[in-house]
Amino acid sequence: MINLTINGKKISAEENSTILEAAKNNGINIPHLCYLEDVHEFGSCRICVVEVEGAKTLQASCITKVSEGMVVHTNSSRVRKARKVLYELLLSDHSKDCLSCKRNQTCELQELGRTLGVDETRFEGARSASYTDSSVSITRDLSKCVLCRRCVTVCNEIQGVGILNAQNRGFDTVIGPAMNLPIGTVNCSYCGQCTVVCPVGALKETDSIQEVWEALNDKNKRVVVQVAPAVRVAIGEEFGYECGERVTGKLASALRELGFDDVFDTNFAADLTIIEEGTEFLNRVKNALTGRGAVLPMITSCSPGWIKYIEHTFPDELDHLSTCKSPHTMMGALVKSYYAKKINEDPKDIYVVSIMPCTAKKTEIRRAEMKNDGMPNVDAVLTTRELASMIREAGIDFRSLEDSEFDNPLGMSTGAADIFGLTGGVMEAALRTVYETVTGRELPFDGLHVTPIMGLDQVKEASILIEDPLENYSFLDGVEIRVAVTSGLKGANQLMKEVAAGKSPYHFIEVMGCPGGCMMGGGQPRSKDPDVRIKRLKGLYSEDESKVLRKSHENPYIISLYEEFLGSPNSHKAHELLHTHYVKRGVFNEYSNEKFVAKGADIKRAPGGTDKMADFLEGARKKERKERDENESIRILALEAENARLKDELDDALETVELFKKVLADYAEKHR
Amino acid sequence: MSNKTGSCTCNPTEKTSRYSEIDKVIELYKDKRGSLIQILHLAQEIYGHLPLDLQQYIAKSLDIPLSEVSGVVSFYSFFSTKPRGQHTIRVCLGTACYVRGGKKIIEKLSEILGVGLGETTKDGRFTFEIARCIGACGLAPAMMIDNVVYKQVNANKLESILSQY
Fold first, then answer.
1. Nearest chain A Cα to B12, which residue?
2. Per-residue pLDDT tens digits for B51-106
3. Most buried one in A136, A191, A523, A554, CB count within 10 A?
4. Same structural domain for residues A70 and A190?
5. Which residues of chain A register pLDDT less than 50?
6. Buried b (16+ CB within 10 A) or exposed e, A205-238
């Protein structure tokens, strides 16, 4: 332990801890902005400066380690003054349109101003880059960026993707993709982790609220909504519930209040995914073991961020992906076929909205593959945050809502579906069904939980020995099925390098794009609770355990769906509606030119300008040119008028001179 | 200085041959941390400038994000992403040169060359830039053409200096 004095208080702190941590553990809050515990400890904003006796300059407390005998002042007038000046300088290059900003009242910069007691902005001057760049999933509003670089850390260090980095220098610095390319044109996975950590309104999901309101107002549309498993343990946070608290019943009621005609559960489609994906897996293993050849390991395909990442980063390994669509697009496909027929409605008049913890799903539904009969499976995706915002806007008192159930036939689900929202959940759900299909017995784990793949580690693995299988699966006798689970793209990269080298020891791999799985997705509420991951995890596991049916193949509505409509798992019809294929993209889109730029993206003010941007810029340029031409012609007219006026003046002057000359000449003549 | 780059190609195999000269450099520095700047420096030396597809090639070879490469390229004014002229003129605008009329030199040069700062003349002979102190304050105002320093320049000398290139 290290002994030091902070504000006259003698305290002891752990070795290698920072001044900020030591102070916090002893009840002293040091204001900070860019610092994000365990994620971003970088000292870029300098708001957390403190006075350390003996040091010439103020020190950033989030990166300065404690040392023996150190004397620190966190509240001296020098420190307070410095913080205020720093804050005001940040404001001088900020748009300050707080009242019309999505982050109003949840903005960390705003809160900091209140903490620091700032009541004036003394600095006004030039503003740096302030344009907006929108992809279908993520919008960057550079007028609000405070250059804290949290997003850079998350994108590079945690996800290992590296789309966002500081470009240019000094006043011209912007955080963005290489060469100021629009984010809709690069190899971004759209995982949205950057939007979760952004302290201000600079990074956010691209708005879909408006189009959903329009659909809800359209009397000719039947608007169907579905909710992902991870939403039910997170949306409560937006209405004052404890982190991880399950609010499933209230959520269903809120959606009805908003005016959705059918309130379905993506969980149902998760159960369906297990049947389709489990069958696909068993077929692949069978083919591999009986010498017919199959691509193994098979990798899950539920996470669209992960899908986009592998398409860019490992374009030659796409055969490893399960061909199953993600659960919500399966649901969309079913709503516009199976359900439409059931209720005798033209699928063209059905509008499917998915409530997702995810920003990548917004891009997923725009993919050409996610269509059947020329209609998109899903029409709009709202993030958990967006739904909360709609509930507030509609004046619904969430806390006083009665609990209600999802609608059938697409609303019932087993416990296996709930755990789709956490890392290891899809694998566990699949194993519950696959093991029982093969052996006729329940999965030999306490409470059906595959313990080795539970928890929040980056890469987890397990193996299950198949003994005494049913007759149809005798080829599996004595086979040890090896599985791996990872969440976050950095872990995925690690496992994929093994796969690409042909050295992967696994049969089946689950990948979720966000660290912790969907419950920590890029569209989830921005939590301040340091234990958020473990609390949401517990919430989902308890939702699973609270159900009587906990294995996907026991879902009675799934059974009747196959009987009435799909036939058998992996049938022709199932393939048509529920399966997909993937697009080879390459890191720099060498193989595909598909772009996901949002409509109306305002990038005309973007600095630089590259080949790829040229297409987008051309329109804006034309407009500018026209305006400039107009301005130019007005200027020329004005100049011509001025010229004429000056000419007249000159003529007058010349005339006067001539006159004077004459007078002088006359005068001289007379005297002679 | 050779300039072998032209319009963008999207064919990765063609890129390999196009930028094969930089491979040796990358091989040399690959395992050394923090050698990106050195590689970019040599790449600019070989190809004249650092267009997007060359940056992509370097990023891929080093297995680092493109945004990191472009971040470094855009940070240092010495790196250029557009084709450069045969010769680079850098007029010093450090404090001493500024005080002694560096700005006048820029105005005159701009007039003679017919281009603004950061631009390249139409005939591709000169790229016109400013420098922040070239360490020749005693000789102010100073300017450089490629690696040659010209001391106590004034507007009248410019024509004769340029005619040497």
1. A590
2. 999 999 999 999 999 999 999 999 988 888 888 888 989 999 889 999 998 889 99
3. A191
4. no
5. 604-605, 607-612, 614, 617
6. bbbbbeebeebbeeeebbbbbbbbbbbbbbbbbb
Residues A657 and A527 in one domain: no
Length of chain B: 165
Torsion angle, alpha carbons of A57, A58, A64, A69, to 10: 80
Q: Beta-carbon neighbour count of residue A179 at 10 Å?
A: 25
B43 at interface of A, judged by CB pairs closer than 8 A: no
Q: Which of A605, A554, A669, A516 has its CA nearest to residue A142?
A: A605
A508 Rama class: left (phi>0) / alpha (psi -120 to 50) / beta: beta
Residue to mutate among A172, A590, A591, A595, with most B CBs inside 10 A, is: A590
Q: Which residues form the domain of A161?
A: 128-205
Known active-site residue A302: yes
Which one of B55, B71, B81 has the shortest CB-CB distance to A166?
B71
Cα(A355)–Cα(A518) distance, integer angstroms: 12
By the 8 A CB rule, do A149 and A115 touch? no
A165: chain B residues, CB-CB within 8 Å: 65, 67-68, 70-71
Q: Mark which of A80, A98, A116 sits at the end of a domain.
A: A98
A216 assigned to some structural domain? yes
* Tally of domains in chain A: 4
Q: Quick one: pLDDT at residue A629? A: 63
Q: What is the CATH number of the domain that holds A278?
A: 3.40.50.1780
Q: Give the whole-angstrom CA distance, residue A535 versus residue A423.
A: 14
Q: Is residue A605 part of a domain?
A: no
pLDDT of residue B4: 39
Around Cβ A166, how many Cβ atoms within 10 Å?
20
Tell me what pLDDT residue A291 has. 85
Q: Do residue A417 and residue A556 come from a single domain?
A: yes
User: Among A516, A546, A578, which residue terminates a domain?
Assistant: A578
- Specify whether A386 is catalytic: no
CATH class of B87-162: alpha beta
Q: Is A159 exposed, middle or buried (0-12, 13-18, 19+ CB in 10 A)?
A: buried
